[in-house]
Prior knowledge:
The protein is of the alpha/beta class. The strands form five sheets. A six-stranded mixed sheet has the order 7-8-9-5-10-11, sandwiched between helices. The protein has a three-stranded antiparallel sheet with strand order 4-3-6. A two-stranded antiparallel ribbon has the order 1-2. Among the domains are: about 105-185 and about 265-375 and about 385-415, P-loop containing nucleotide triphosphate hydrolases (Rossmann fold); about 430-720, no CATH class. The chain starts with a helix and ends with a helix. About 50% of the residues lie in helices and about 10% in strands. Helix 1 packs across helix 11 (about 390-400) and helix 4 packs across helix 5 (about 250-260). Residues about 10-95, about 375-385 and about 710-723 have low confidence and may be disordered. It has 23 helices and 15 strands. It has helices at about 1-15, 150-155, 200-210, 220-230, 250-260, 280-295, 310, 330-340, 350-360, 365-370, 390-400, 405-415, 430-450, 450-470, 480-500, 505-515, 525-555, 560-590, 590-605, 625-630, 630-645, 660-665, 675-720; strands at about 55-60, 65-70, 105-115, 120-135, 140, 165-170, 185, 270, 300-305, 315-320, 325-330, 620, 625, 650, 655-660. The radius of gyration is 33 Å and the shape is elongated.
Amino acid sequence: xxxxxxxxxxxxxxxxxxxxxxxxxxxxxxxxxxxxxxxxxxxxxxxxxxxxxxxxxxxxxxxxxxxxxxxxxxxxxxxxxxxxxxxxxxxxxxxxxxxxxxxxxxxxxxxxxxxxxxxxxxxxxxxxxxxxxxxxxxxxxxxxxxxxxxxxxxxxxxxxxxxxxxxxxxxxxxxxxxxxxxxxxxxxxxxxxxxxxxxxxxxxxxxxxxxxxxxxxxxxxxxxxxxxxxxxxxxxxxxxxxxxxxxxxxxxxxxxxxxxxxxxxxxxxxxxxxxxxxxxxxxxxxxxxxxxxxxxxxxxxxxxxxxxxxxxxxxxxxxxxxxxxxxxxxxxxxxxxxxxxxxxxxxxxxxxxxxxxxxxxxxxxxxxxxxxxxxxxxxxxxxxxxxxxxxxxxxxxxxxxxxxxxxxxxxxxxxxxxxxxxxxxxxxxxxxxxxxxxxxxxxxxxxxxxxxxxxxxxxxxxxxxxxxxxxxxxxxxxxxxxxxxxxxxxxxxxxxxxxxxxxxxxxxxxxxxxxxxxxxxxxxxxxxxxxxxxxxxxxxxxxxxxxxxxxxxxxxxxxxxxxxxxxxxxxxxxxxxxxxxxxxxxxxxxxxxxxxxxxxxxxxxxxxxxxxxxxxxxxxxxxxxxxxxxxxxxxxxxxxxxxxxxxxxxxxxxxxxxxxxxxxxxxxxxxxxxxxxxxxxxxxxxxxxxxxxxxxxxxxxxxxxxxxxxxxxxxxxxxxxxx
Length: 723
C-alpha cells in the first residue's frame, strides 16, 4: 500500500494544480464534470426499471414482419439522455420518425471467461465482471487493446466459442434465459458488404433473408432502419461505387452494417468497435446516431478503445477493463470522480478517455523506459511518469471498496429480483424463400459486376475467336484428325484455365456468406443452392456463345443434335470447373493462393488428360491412377471426340475405308460404344455434384473454424495481456 500511495502522490504532484477538482471549481463549460457538491455522490438508482410499473407486450403480426408494442406509462428516466451528454440534433419538420423499440435489461454477474490452454482451462481473459445495461441507454465497455473487451461482449451475447468457458450468470429482463433469434443483434468489428447493391437494396435483401412473411411487408422495416441510422441521403447510392465513382465512406459503411441488424428490430444490440477505423467526424456522427437509436428504447452495449471528449459525453455507463479486471462500472461522470479519488485526477484540458487509457494501458511503460533520458522544453517527461501497473492496482482496489461498486451490486439485485417479460423469437424466413432471395440477389450482382462477369465473358469470346481462327478450315479429311483433336483439347483446357478470373468473385461470395451466417441470416445449403442456381445462367451463356463460335469456325459436323451435345458437354465442364474453384477458395480464403492452386491443378489435369500421351501409356502410379481419372478434361475431351467421330468413316485410297475410331488411332483413346459419350457426360455431372458436396463439407466446417480461430486469437491476445 505504501508503494501504491507513493506512486499516487507522485502522479498527483506531477499534474497541474488546476487539474484537481478539489483545488478548482469545475467550469460549466466542461460537461463531463458533475456540479460542485455532487462529486462524491454514488450513482443513482432512478434509472432502474420497475417491472410492476412497466408492462411490455410484444405482439408479432401475422407474417412476423412487424412488432406492435403496448406499454403503460413507465418511469421517464428509462429513456432520458445523460444530463451531461451532448443533445441529439433536432429532427426537421415533417421528418419521418422511426418506430419505438422495446428494449430489455441485461445483467452480468461474476462473469469470468477462461480459454483452453494446452491441457486445461487456465487463462482468465475476463475476471469476475459485474454490470448491467438498461433500455434506452448506451453502455460502453472501454479499455486498451487486449484487455478483454470483445470477449466480455461475446460472453454477454452468448457468442463465445466452445474453446472458451464462461463462469457466472447473465440475466435478460431478470431471467437467466438464452436470447432467441431476432431478439438481439450482433455487429462484428468488420462486416463484408456487397458493393454492387445500393444501401436500400442491400438492407431489403437482408430483410428478406431474415424475416418471414411476404416481400412487400419488409419495405417499412427497411425504411425504419434507414431512418434510424441516418442513411436517407445514401439510400439509393451503390455501396461500393461504380466505374469511376467512389464507394461510400467508412462511416456510412459501418452504419449500414448496424442497419442490417436493425431490420429485425432487436431489443438488444451488441456492437464490437463501432468506431473502428473512423475519423473524429465520422465517429461523432456514429455515436450521435446510436444515441438517437438508444432514445427509441433499444438497449445498446458496445466496445470501444478510445474516444474524443464529445463522444465520451454521449455515453450513459462505462465498464472500464484492463487485463481482464474491471476497474470501474457506473455512470461516465462518476468514473472521473473515481479516478480522482484514487489519486489520478483528469487534467482540465485532457479528454477523459485519453486520461483513463493513459492510466491503465501497460504499453505506456515502454514509452516511459524509452523517454527516461529524454527532455523536452519543460524538462523531463513528467506527464508520463506514472507506473501503469501501480495505477491499475490502485484503481481496482479503490473501486472494490467504493460506494459505486456497492451501488452496482444493489442494482443487480433489484434487476434480478423479479423476472420481466421473456424475449420471444420472431421466426425465420423459409429455406425456399432464402434460396430464391440469394439467387435473385446474385443474378443482380452479376448483371452489375462487369469486372468479374461480363469481362470474363468477353475474354472467353476473344480466346474462342483466337483458337477458332488458328484452327479454321481444317476440312474433313483423314489428315485433319490430329489437328482437330488438338483444337478440341486447346479449347477445353484453355477456357477452363481462363475461368481463374472468377476466383475473386467466389472468394467474395464466401466472405459474404460467412458474414451472414454468423448472425444466422443464411445457411450452407441455402448459400450453395443460391450460388449454383445463379451461376447456371451465366455459365450457360458462356458455353453457348463460345461453343457456337468454335463449332462453326473449326467446321465440325453440321448436325443440330451434335451441336447441342457439344454445348451441353462444355457447360458441364464449366460447372465442374466452378465447383473445383469453390473447393480451393473454401480451403485457402485468399486470392493469391487460390489462383496459384487452381492454376497448378489445371496444368496437372491437362498433362494427364490423354492428349500429350494416351492414357494407357501413362505411368500407372500417380498419373494414370488417380490423376487421369479425376481430371474433368479427360471426360470432356473424350466425349467431344466421340460425338464428332463415332459413326464416321474416312477413305484410304480408292478402295479401303476406316472408321472414325480407327482414324483417331494413337492420337486419342475413345470407346467404340455409341453410348459412351453420354457416360462421359454423366461422369461430368457426378463430378459437379461431388465438388458441390465437398464444398458443403468444407464451408460447413472451415468457415466456422476460421471464425473460431479469429475468436480464439482475440481471446489469446487478451489472456497474454492479462498475464
